[in-house]
Design brief:
Blueprint: H1 4-9, H2 11-15, H3 21-37, E1 48-50, E2 64-69, E3 74-75, E4 83-96, E5 104-109, E6 112-117, H4 124-136, E7 142-147, E8 151-156, E9 165-166, E10 174-203, H5 212-222, H6 226-233, E11 237-241, E12 247-248, E13 260-278, E14 284-291, E15 294-301
Parallel strand pairs: 1-2
Antiparallel strand pairs: 2-10, 3-10, 4-8, 4-10, 5-6, 5-9, 7-8, 10-13, 11-13, 12-13, 14-15
Amino acid sequence: MLGKRAVRTLVALLGALEDPVRVDIAFARLRDILVDALSALISDPKSIVLGMGAGGIPKRQRPYLHIDALTLPAMIGTFTDEKETRCEILSKTIQIVSAVVDRDYKVRLNGLPALHVESGGQTVTQIRDALRLRIDVLGEPVSTADNGADSIDVTPNFAGAIHSLTSPSDTNRLLITEVLGTDAVTYSIGRRRFTVRIQCFSKTGRVGSGGAHQIINTAYAALDTPDAKLFLKDYRLAIRPLTPAPINATGIVAGGARNEQRALFDIAVSLGSMTVRPANKIETVEISLTLGNQTITFTQDATNPP
């Protein structure tokens, strides 16, 4: 999850959305890729920071990588063909039916994957605990609780927060049941797009021979690999570069005179977006009957038909 510093900076950004958790996920997954790709150049993952504000320079040991939102997410299109109305999901229960050595236990919550692989000799309770942890770190607006020795109860934090919870695992290993409400909700699924700047600051010669330039070139290449794109696609994320190559920006920012190196590139980030609203109910129906030249009109309570 994002640190306090990143959360404070993203308050305005997240406030513009009906489903802010998706932006949180976008930043966290981008950071995951860069932490792995830059481990040889930036040994301390805390030096890869999130959301400081577009031009703020944190006072910390260089070098560090800075991931920043430059624009507010905006909806792309209307997506009227991606609406679904159905009964609200009140809760889902995931049951670990059996422990099978070296097999996957996987669920997808609102399209996001949570996976645990049995590591040999684990009980159903140990598998349940590990899978619950994977679900919790997704950051979706749901609450989880243990149910007996082998099950997890998943409940929405607000109406409609669970759009889907499914599993490709065999039902002899993992079984999902649900409780539905009587009220209908409408899910609207679309995409939001915003611009992210990834930039690096370092003192001359601190890392390799290229300093910030070497780090940012490595980061640029890491996000342009098939593996990275497949990883992001699993979280309904897509990215594309907005700059054809990393930019040498040394000296453009205040403090550059103190032997600062600075390099950067911008990317467009597109992420799956979902809004949930109560479905419009038909409370009454007006009925008219015409007999000859006489018309009789009356109103019927649609929730209590005759």
